[in-house]
Specification:
By secondary structure, the chain is an alpha+beta fold. It is built from 21 helices and ten strands. The strands form three sheets. It has a five-stranded mixed β-sheet with strand order 4-5-6-10-7, with helices on one face. Strands 1-3-2 form a three-stranded antiparallel β-sheet. A hairpin with a 5-residue loop joins strand 8 and strand 9. Helix 4 runs antiparallel to helix 8, helix 6 crosses helix 11 and helix 10 crosses helix 18. The two termini are 29 Å apart.
């Protein structure tokens, strides 16, 4: 529809008629302005030959994105290790795990899917084990390297056709940060401030690794990318007596999911009804109806697809399946959203147990679900998460705070066998350890944002994405890459899935999430129903129908 010249002429006529434009209500006027820009960005104002070329580019970029994503989802890395090589992993990690006999020795199969990768990188004592799995992960999908390179060139060509100097300049016109300079100033300022904290943290990591090497009688050669999770976890255990295995016992997935849904029901004045025998795409998927809590008023549907399986999308995300909007007859279309994740499955001896990070992820992603469900706009164009791209994460980031609130944790964190609530002392230790390693962690986020700008804020397109990724990661994150040839950018799905020239938004939106949380919920109480309903009305309900700024 964005290539229909007849529609563009009508929209453009309204846009040019200032009297008619000002007579429209706020949402209609915003729609006209957005459509005018969208039609222009689709090439309707270009000469026919340039418009045709732009269409070819857009089609090819879509093909590249689909291929890239399919390659990532269908090509997990895979290594085999002996039990001794996996020293540090709990017994539960091995229950029901596939094994292979290699040269007469039984070995356990470990993949690069999150439920395998994260515990190995956090808990495996042998550095060579962590290194081998990290390298396997970063050598996935070599076929994606040329796909990303082609996309970078095509995006620049499209931006130039539309009168922009770089792809980043083209993208940022519609964001709160309206120029590449704003983004780079933000990233570099943040990098400078984080470096002060990160270098202090790095000394602790170095001391710990030097001590480990000394015990083994081996020389210390530096900190590598596969050391970050391991030593961050070691330091938490040493300083705060936090064991991820101990914490997991209080996060059985069934109870945590139900408890977090209860939190959202209470906060937003909603009621969820699980659908029996739902029409879904896999038996693991659950479907819910959403109703107003105090009225017999239907609101929408959402799906939860939370466990890993072959060829499935292998991160956590939410897709708005159907937006809500006002119908011509005065009724409203009901929204539908789906959350996809890859949380651990049950083992033969224990239910599915989540890490605390998993629980925070669930809170975050459900924040996107209910942004879609609670939004009520006249036009589908503005429904739910259709806000400025560098604001869209803010509501969900704010809701991560609930995962650190003692009063909230005690509502759903219970021991999987005894049913006892999480001990108050353990909650205190969790909260105390919250910001441990925050400088280094956020530098990693800065690295991703700087890589994004390095490949997209270029006027000639002559960039080597693989080389830039590897060099920037080492320079910014402060951890060495190692000697193996790797291409981690080949699985950086954000760059081919809609976050191109937009990854900075994750940190940018943290500013707004912190302000929302501190100014209202922290003052008035995280369980205050009035504050929750104000949040639903003022932040979720408008979707993108008004400026986020």
């Amino acid at each position: 529809s964005m290539m229909r010249e007849d529609l563009y002429k009508v929209v453009h006529a309204v846009y040019e008629n200032k009297k008619e434009l000002e007579a429209l209500d706020d949402e209609d006027r915003r729609l006209v302005k957005k459509l005018e820009l969208q039609f222009q960005r689709s090439g309707l104002a270009l000469a026919s030959d340039k418009r045709e070329r732009l269409g070819e580019i857009r089609k090819r970029l879509s093909e590249l994105g689909i291929k890239f994503s399919r390659n990532v989802n269908e090509n997990d890395g895979r290594k085999t290790f002996t039990r001794e090589e996996l020293a540090g992993l709990p017994d539960s990690f091995f229950e029901g795990r596939e094994t292979e006999v290699v040269d007469g020795v039984e070995k356990f199969v470990v993949t690069t899917k999150y439920p395998d990768m994260v515990p190995v990188m956090e808990l495996a004592h042998h550095e060579t084990t962590r290194q081998q799995l990290a390298v396997a992960n970063e050598q996935r999908c070599p076929e994606n390297v040329p796909l990303m390179q082609e996309a970078i060139g095509l995006r620049l060509e499209a931006a130039r056709l539309l009168g922009y100097t770089t792809h980043a300049e083209y993208v940022l016109v519609e964001k709160m940060a309206d120029s590449p300079k704003s983004v780079m100033d933000f990233e570099e300022d943040l990098r400078s401030k984080l470096n002060v904290l990160a270098k202090r943290e790095l000394k602790e990591f170095e001391e710990r690794k030097r001590a480990d090497k000394s015990v083994l009688g081996k020389p210390y050669e530096g900190l590598y990318t596969w050391d970050f999770r391991y030593y961050a976890n070691q330091i938490k255990e040493r300083k705060h007596k936090i064991s991820s295995e101990e914490v997991k016992q209080y996060f059985p997935m069934k109870q945590v999911t139900r408890g977090i849904l209860d939190v959202y029901q209470s906060m937003l004045g909603l009621r969820f009804v699980k659908v029996a025998d739902p029409p879904v795409w896999h038996p693991d998927v659950e479907m819910y109806e959403v109703w107003e809590a105090h009225e017999d008023v239907f609101v929408g549907h959402f799906y939860l697809d939370l466990f890993p399986r072959d060829a499935k999308y292998n991160h956590a995300a939410v897709w708005p399946i159907r937006p809500g909007y006002a119908k011509p007859d005065g009724t409203h279309e009901f929204p539908v959203a789906a959350m996809v994740a890859n949380f651990p499955k049950p083992t033969p001896s224990a239910p599915a147990l989540m890490t605390h990070d998993d629980a925070v992820t669930l809170l975050h992603e459900l924040g996107h679900v209910f942004h879609s469900i609670c939004s009520q706009t006249k036009w589908a164009r503005f429904h739910g998460t259709q806000t400025e791209g560098d604001f869209v994460e803010a509501p969900s980031q704010m809701l991560e705070n609930w995962g650190w609130e003692p009063s909230v944790l005690r509502q759903f964190a219970v021991h999987h066998s005894s049913g006892e609530p999480i001990p108050e002392d353990l909650v205190k230790r969790l909260v105390a350890a919250k910001n441990e390693g925050a400088g280094l962690f956020n530098l990693r986020q800065v690295f991703f944002g700087l890589f994004d700008m390095a490949i997209h804020d270029t006027a000639d397109g002559k960039v080597d994405a693989k080389a830039i990724y590897n060099q920037l990661r080492q320079d910014v994150s402060l951890f060495k890459n190692g000697s193996d040839d790797t291409w981690g950018m080949a699985t950086f799905g954000h760059m081919m899935g809609g976050y191109d020239a937009g990854y900075y938004g994750y940190l940018w939106s943290e500013v707004f999430s912190a302000d929302m949380y501190a100014s209202r919920f922290l003052k008035e109480g995280v369980n205050n129903p009035k504050t929750g309903m104000d949040y639903r009305r003022e932040i979720l309900r408008p979707g993108g129908s008004r400026d986020a700024s």
